[in-house]
Design goal:
The chain contains 16 helices and 2 strands. The protein is mainly α. The protein folds into 3 domains: 96 residues, no CATH class; 87 residues, no CATH class; 141 residues, no CATH class. Strand 1 and strand 2 form a beta hairpin. The chain is globular.
Length: 397
């Protein structure tokens, strides 16, 4: 049965928050920021998103214990106003809570159209010359390779948004036939973006996603069929994070293949190691200062290393567990396209910082639904074993 694309009125505030947030996040990533100063509107959009999510939870009663919810929210907001990283984390928590019982496909479709609009709008105006004199193209350091920004504030943004669009498309069309032409179009646009921006990691991952999705379309492989593959898939995020830290911490040992990999990844391993040595490890994270231009450039691209330093091991472990639950759900449901997309998120996290960035990974909104899924499953197991009943509030009696 075909799902309706219409938004239910009880979900309206959630989608207002989502569209407002995605729109502002994408505008700040484009050269439009050089024409109009959108920075004063950033905090306004934050409070519009937060307010919409609060109203969403209030009217739809997505949270069972409302006094506890609002109590925690007040504490978080007081802290969030003071620190940008915490502010973003609070907003993501609100989004995850609000989206935990919603239709993921519908969320992804709305995200897809918002991201597609801003990417197309920005690229078209870039070729029309609107950003002449303010766009952020440059030559790759130490070479004569020119990297075009395609109208964004950094050359890597457009290819990564394209990768996100392809990930969403692969997932929302998992039950449809005759999508190979669309796959090829995404791949060709990916080649075009790579030629223009010379952004390697996004292109490598896009090739991997294209290959895996195409293979699954042709051969319809159930990768969750065997015990060993199920175990490996469910451990994907922990495996990727462990491998990342092993490679980064071994960087100073002059291992030839790590040095070669570091150069291939534009010195990402070196910057990650420098970040760990410079800021150390704190239980609740450290305020890491990133320098995005000039000779003192410093940025940690790996999501795993960045999250560990910014938020500390506790929050880092919670994020890994939530993403692991998301992978487990797709494995348990034998959703091969879901496994591919979530696996791409895990692999992408090794070299790029978008693992909890809503604009680049709207799949973060399904973390809450996976947690709710296993909570309901646990309750049903208890009911089947004890004969108890679940009341209207979902409490076992």
């Amino acid at each position: 049965m075909k799902k309706s694309l219409l938004i239910r009125k009880e979900d309206l505030f959630f989608y207002i928050a989502l569209i407002v947030y995605l729109s502002m996040a994408m505008i700040l990533d484009t050269a439009w920021f050089g024409i109009i100063n959108f920075r004063p509107f950033e905090m306004i959009c934050f409070f519009i998103s937060v307010g919409s999510l609060i109203l969403d939870n209030l009217f739809s009663r997505r949270f069972d214990n409302m006094p506890l919810y609002f109590g925690l929210l007040v504490v978080f907001l007081v802290v969030a106003v003071q620190a940008e990283n915490i502010r973003y984390l609070v907003l993501m928590i609100l989004f995850i809570i609000s989206g935990r019982n919603m239709d993921l496909d519908k969320i992804l479709k709305v995200s897809y159209f918002v991201i597609m609009f801003f990417v197309a709008f920005t690229v078209v105006f870039f070729y029309l010359g609107v950003f002449n004199g303010i766009e952020h193209s440059f030559y790759r350091q130490g070479s004569d390779i020119f990297r075009s920004s395609l109208g964004f504030s950094y050359t890597a943004y457009a290819p990564h948004y394209l990768l996100t669009l392809f990930m969403i498309y692969v997932y929302i069309t998992r039950n449809k036939k005759h999508v190979l032409l669309q796959y090829c179009i995404f791949f060709l646009v990916g080649i075009w973006f790579y030629i223009e921006t010379n952004t390697r990691t996004a292109f490598y991952v896009l090739i991997l996603l294209f290959a895996l999705a195409l293979i699954n379309r042709i051969f319809k492989i159930d990768v969750a069929k065997y015990k060993i593959s199920r175990f490996m898939l469910k451990s994907t995020f922990f495996i990727c994070s462990i491998v990342t830290f092993i490679v980064v911490l071994n960087y100073p040992n002059n291992i030839s293949w790590i040095s070669d990999l570091n150069r291939l990844l534009n010195y990402r391993i070196a910057y990650a190691y420098d970040g760990i040595m410079r800021y150390g490890i704190s239980v609740f994270g450290n305020p890491v200062e990133f320098i995005l231009s000039g000779s003192q450039y410093f940025y940690i691209d790996s999501s795993y290393v960045q999250l560990f330093l910014l938020y500390g091991p506790i929050v880092f472990l919670i994020i890994l567990i939530l993403y692991t639950l998301l992978m487990c759900r797709n494995v348990d449901e034998h959703n091969t396209f879901g496994i591919i997309v979530v696996g791409i998120i895990a692999i992408r996290g090794i070299t790029d910082p978008q693992i909890i960035n809503l604009a680049y990974s709207p799949f973060i909104l399904s973390l809450g639904s996976s947690m709710a899924f296993y909570a309901r499953k646990r309750k049903m197991n208890i009911v089947s074993k004890t004969g108890k009943r679940i009341n209207s509030l979902g409490v076992i009696k």
